[in-house]
Write a structure and sequence with these properties.
Chain lengths: 205, 205
DNA sequence: GTCTATACTGAGATAGAC
DNA sequence: GTCTATCTCAGTATAGAC
């Protein structure tokens, strides 16, 4: 990868994580990266495609790690289903590790999930991993319908996006524990573990 | 309120709920509402202010209902803390009722929370209500620190935004139960009830 | 293949006539 | 209150230099 392309990616990652996608203009990115505007469209095609490649650059590695960890837990569990806590650990620990080195990327991911902006990338790179995890959850939570597991997985994404994006924001009006990424993730897992294991929603007719 | 202003609000609510805030241009709104572009800036000042008034128009009523319902539950509970399930009911039922009549508004709210776009309105109109609910949760969950309750409340917002926004989206790659608003909300409350009542996150040092 | 310069279209915002 | 004209800035497209 050429230095121009890399400069664009690095600068865009930092600025979009800080300000959001819509609020960050290409002109601001190229100004700070000291490259030409057209170089962005030469290398990426569009602003949206730049975002997609930004995600893809790191998401692939994180998702590979996620699946590997899940596979390890599945081997350890033998014929038994993997416990929900372990499934959550497999899902979040690779992200936490990435976030400890580079919090910007994780915040970026949270923003993208919240804004619903990574349609193509989600399908291409996340969906296979998500599918593996939903399968694991179905085995761990046999009393839930497939639809309810999908709903809870979606709730999980929403909670996660707030966990990583909300770090800078004031904590719902009351003074929170601020920008402690590790603490926030541990609280998130604790919360999700209980939520995922809630009894099934009763059918109403 | 004049008919022009009202036409703008109604049209903007529908379009923004469908397409999102950034994806909806003022020119599209004024075209469908059949008003002049400058009228928007005359009545609202800016696109952002239009959004704020859009939220404010309905959020005030929803928040009033929330607080009233919570107060009723507090009276019923006497000196005991209100159960978490009841706190959640007080928070969500007014929103569900609004959403049953006008799903657009609830989806709009979800989008705004996800994208973090309603800075001024949240502080002015939501924070007092949020504060009341956090206080109720503190009483119901005395083993949790204030910081952890704030975190969980934030997770709740994230899950909620996905619950109401994700209705149209495909359910994480597996076929979901589609756009059933009532079902989605019941699942959400079930999920959140367990998540909020999870044991405290252990301190690590 | 890479990058630059420049122009095009559509966005939100504003000033001033009526 | 309303509308026209205009401003600035956004993302995008293209022609051509190296």
């Amino acid at each position: 990868m050429g230095p121009t392309k890399e400069k664009i990616l690095d600068t865009a990652e930092r600025l979009i994580a800080d300000q959001g996608f819509a609020a960050t203009s290409l002109r601001q990115i190229i100004s700070e990266a000291q490259v030409n505007l057209a170089a962005v469209h030469y290398h990426f095609g569009s602003k949206q495609d730049l975002l997609d490649q930004l995600i893809e650059r790191k998401a692939t590695r994180v998702n590979t790690d996620r699946e590997a960890l899940l596979a390890r837990f599945e081997t350890e569990a033998g014929s038994h289903p993997v416990a929900v806590e372990k499934i959550l650990r497999a899902f979040f620990e690779p992200m936490i590790e990435t976030g400890s080195q580079n919090p910007q990327f994780v915040r970026l991911m949270g923003r993208m999930i919240a804004e619903g902006l990574i349609t193509g990338v989600v399908e291409k790179h996340f969906q296979p991993t998500i599918f593996r995890f939903i399968c694991a959850l179905r085995r761990a939570l046999p009393s839930l319908t497939e639809g309810e597991i999908a709903s809870r997985f979606r709730f999980m994404f929403g909670a996660m996006s707030q966990a990583v994006c909300g770090l800078a924001a004031p904590d719902m009006g009351i003074q929170g524990d601020g920008a402690d990424f590790q603490l926030s993730m541990r609280r998130l897992i604790q919360f999700l573990s209980a939520g995922l294991q809630a009894p099934p929603t009763e059918e109403v007719r």
